[in-house]
Amino acid sequence: MISILRSMWLTFLHVFHKTETVEYPEVKPYLPPRYRGRIILTRDAEKKERCVACYLCAAACPVDCISLQATEDEQGRRYPEFFRINFSRCIFCGFCEEACPTYAIQLIPDFEMAEYDRQNMVYEKKHLLISGEGKYTGYNFYKIAGVEIGVKGKGEGENEEKPVDIKELLP
Amino acid sequence: MKYVFIIAGILLIVLSIAAGLIWVERRLLSVWQDRLGPNRVGPFGLGQVVADTIKLFFKEDWVPPFSDRPVFVLAPGILMITILLTFAVVPFGPDFYVFDSNIGILFFLGNSSLGVYSIVLGGWASNNKYSLIGAMRASAQMLTYEVFMGLSLMGVVMMADSFSFCKIVEAQKGGWFFIPQFIGFIVFFIAGIAETHRLPFDIPEAEGELIAGYHSEYSGMKFGMFFVGEYLGITLISALVSTLFFGGWLGPSFLPPVFWFLFKTFFFICVFILLRASLPRPRYDQLMELGWKILLPLSLLNLLVTGAILIFLK
Amino acid sequence: MSLEVRMVKITIDGKYYEVKPEKNLLESCLSIGIDIPHFCFHPALGSVGACRLCAVKKFRDIDDTKGRIVMSCMEPVTEGLIVSVDDPEAKAFRASVIESLMTNHPHDCPVCDEGGECHLQDMTVMTGHNYRRFDFPKRTYNNQELGPFISHEMNRCIQCYRCVRFYRDYAGGKDLNVYASRNHVYFGRHEDGPLENEYSGNLVEVCPTGVFTDKTLKRHFTRKWDLSNAPSVCVHCSVGCNTIASERYDSLRRIMSRYNGAVNRYFICDRGRFGYEFVNDEKRIETAQISPGKNKKPEPIENEQLLSSLHQLFSRNKKIIGIGSPRASLESNFALMSLVGKESFYHGISKKEYLLTKTVSDFLQNSGVHTPSLKQIEKADAILVLGEDLINTAPMIALALRQAARNEPDKEAKGKGIPLWNDASVRELAQDSRCPIFIATPFNDSLDEISKNIFHASSAEIANLGYAIALELDKKVPGVKTWGKDIQKLAGIIALSLKNAKNPLIISGVSSGVEGIIHSALNISMALLSVGSNVMLSLVLPECNSMGLSFLPGKSFEEAVLAAEDKEIDTLVVLENDLYRRASEESVNELFDRSNHVVVLDHLINKTTQKADILLPAATFAESEGTIVNNEGRAQRFYKAIYSKNQVKESWRWIENFLKISDENNSVSWNRLDDVVDSLVNELPLFSKLKKYMPDADFRMLNSKIPRQTMRYSGRTAMNANITVSEPKLSQDLDSPLSFSMEGQQENPPSSLVPFYWTPGWNSVQAMYNYLDEPDASMKGGDPGVRLIEPSGGSKNIYFNQAKGITEVQKDEWLIVPVYKIFGSDELSSVSSSILQRIQEPFVLMNQKDADMITLNDGDYVQLEILKISLRVKVKIENSFVTGLTGLSVNLPGMPFIDIPGFGKFHKL
User: Fold this and answer.
1) ipTM of this predicted complex?
2) If you classify domain A32-140 with CATH, what class do you get?
């Protein structure tokens, strides 16, 4: 009985507390850089697309709202022919960012994406791709990978030996 | 002609209080939860009431094909009617009432018992297991609490020597009844919460267990009637508490009596909302236990002691 | 299996199991369902114990608590064997093996085509190695350009040797080998260049990681989990290998082999694997077209208008003729037959091919000689190949022959107590010993190396050899000795070998185009049967459904031309058939000229479709369900991988529209494939077995259809969002129990309905173990397909009289025999862009002496005059040809129909 009255009293005292509400359109809240908002595709330091179209983001997506098609340029560098995110389905869980092995796909602290027409929520590559590196700078997947696609020759990457001369006779 | 104005006036006051409570409750809750509440539509968000009403009117009024249609449609109306009828006997001021019945309290108790039908029939007609469970709970709960709701008022009746609300108010000129009838007040207040199945006693709705209990299948204005009915119930119980225990329209004469009545009523409405903001919902068995094992003996005791004292004083 | 197999009891981790003897421990564990990581073991290739990954602990007896680590793939199962798979030491051993294999493995998975179906990924997860401790520089290799089929990325290699063991030991390839030594071992060719072997595509599936990947898939790369798959059957030759056809974004992405214990098992040839690209080709007919008048360009037309314009063509009392096709499904051919009636149904193949196919088909139905499955071919212990260039006309039979060659050494190994799975030891023991294979063809092919006796001669001589063998076996065989002593002597050797063999096998085919060869092959098998031998006869037919078509009544193409001469045809319906590949240009033109309306249903634009007044887009194997019958007589159904959203429809659905117009009583109502099959079975009881075998479209597992898509199929809510953000209803497949969805029972569907292989922990093709009774055996619930012809009890002694061969070579003329090529001679696969790069220009083969006679060198061009056709061809020297005999490539792109064998002249250019 006392505890009931006490909790009523304590609740009543909240009349004198400061409200926590941020009046959003007039006051913009602070969102940390790792806030999971709009999804972007980034480029590496050489301004080349980071995305290698590995399909891991699409596979990680719990609502299956990412679809893409891989293709290759003349040098064998793989990139998405199209990359589509249906934001009307996206739940901003960030799994795609976690799955991405190249830091290409990133979620940024922008969430103001409301549209009157749902069709406008479908973002293609041209809407997603930015010209910078986003949150993570300095990473270039192809310098670490073993493939040769014009970024580095065989054996010139980080932590790689020169290619084996298979005609060498020394044991 | 005077009656028409009085009836119109009371209906206007009661219904606008009930509607306005939607906004009041949300704002008050937000104050107690360190929020702002609805503040966008109109000044102070008052337009929210209008917006909500318009929304309720324009929502699809859907009657489930599996329901018992006539009963389903009828149920919310019963609730509204019984509560509104009760307001007829509530004196808003010395001359501001529809009629002063000499069995006012019995009229109120009878009407509130009829209100149970609304909920039982609504839950039954929905033909949905959650609704039915909600309705069963509501009926058990209301039956239980009605028993000592009546008993708790008997002390007041004995002291005022009348069932008429006007007489009871007038009998409090020497002192409000909540002091001598403190136990009666507490029991009646708790029973009132249970009777309107407000939080923390909203077990028939219990959204965590039963979706929305007896009105799960209701939408549009039919749901709106249940919704408004609940606020009307709050208003009624608050009005009765102030009438029966806090001297009704009585108060310092620099303000008109109606103001004092409304002020007291509003205070208890706020207490209702504060209860919602601060207390968790008990288990169903706890509720029944409280009713039968504590409140019922308490009200009987109150009746006994009041009677004894009155006889002694005579 | 009829014989009761004695089982042995073994203990694995304290549990008792009964397993088959003569297996190794790894195989036994996999068939029980115990996952042991492994690399170098492959059920078709055996064990070599190279990768050291499949380590388990073996205990001496129950009292032995220490045990010792052994390689399970090299451990025979013996009575009372006690092993532990879960032993901590064995586990740690396996994890350390993976870790060391991974030290040099690049950080490539995101850009590696194997990712998601990688055996190495599976094994790494299975052993629990998850963090790389190796900080030193990684070894790298330069890659090679391996032609249009296979990509090479040597950095990813883990040195398991599976590729060379498959390529060299199993498939007989020469140009892939191991180079360098120690940790520099390199798998590749001696220099850049296309892999020459016809089975190189299987490296994609054999390689446990991403060293060899499918180059055609790379162009439209899709991960395994994103593919929507359907069980399919290869349509590029008469063997009917089972395949998995995979779709994404409405295009066919790749073909993988699908296990069928009786047919192709793990492998398919490159034509089957890479020939699929015709489905996505820009030459595809995707809209119905109608020409406004005779010889005018057709214009696209909507379905409703089309049906009204078809009305006059198919109304009653019209003379309608239907030309079927050996590459169309049984159902489509039957539908056409129902439309035009048996009398007006023509098979759409040349008279020669028709007669030969008919002979083969009749013989197989009536003689009581058994047609072997590929698996039975592998078990044959004496083989005669008569006049068929198997590598090019039925590549998988050639591969089976290579395995059959090992039967003799296998017997020897058994005698010495070496288990057959111990691959290296068996091969060491075998050296060059092989079971007797006799090959009689006009010229050399790569199978010659495994044969005991080779006989290169003209078709007539080959036929003579056949007759001689038959006569040698059974004196009752009609025939006159018209052959020389050497043939007689060879015939004696072969006849003796065949007679002594337990499972003798005769292989021949209609590709030679010579009646005598077929007749003599049939005579030999009949003769063997009459002496009580367990003879098998495998006859190669030209196309995927030649056998099925031959079971339907009908006539040859030439008779259609004759019928047109009698009376002008009102409406001619050509079903999936390019007639210009079947008969001479004049005769086809004549038929079209004498037809008022020509309706053509086909997949790709070709010469015949250009003659059409009404051109209808017919669904390919990838867009339709249908049944085809392979050369064994096995009916197999393929299921649609692509749900075509445009006008493309199954041919039988188009023809059903015609039928509804012509048949006013509406006696035919085919809503789905099963209805057509019902009608077919009613009409022709021969096909009644079709009903027994296949789960029909109402089949459900746990009340749901079998999903074509994997559980992790991605992009559902985005793939069509560019068209409309509202998701479309799922495509419905009326004709099959498969759904275009990822929902439903994923585990072990009936064997003929396996759309893909996946089991928990096994994302690579190795997941197929769980679909089999045991590795390398039949599929759970029996192998897919139903044999329509079974040898009936009493043999009827059908013998053929000796046909008159083509006799004397005339002056200045050369006898020209057909030379088929695996890449190019098949119509549909030669449209595929990858195969196109391997197709040679039209050529003639002749020996050096003949070339010298008309002063020709290798690579010169000559003008060939044959049957009023003049053709520019390239000369290639092939010394295995006898003098006076030349070979001409058949049906390569750009070549007209030429009826060979025949005589022709060469003019040097």
Assistant:
1) 0.88
2) alpha beta
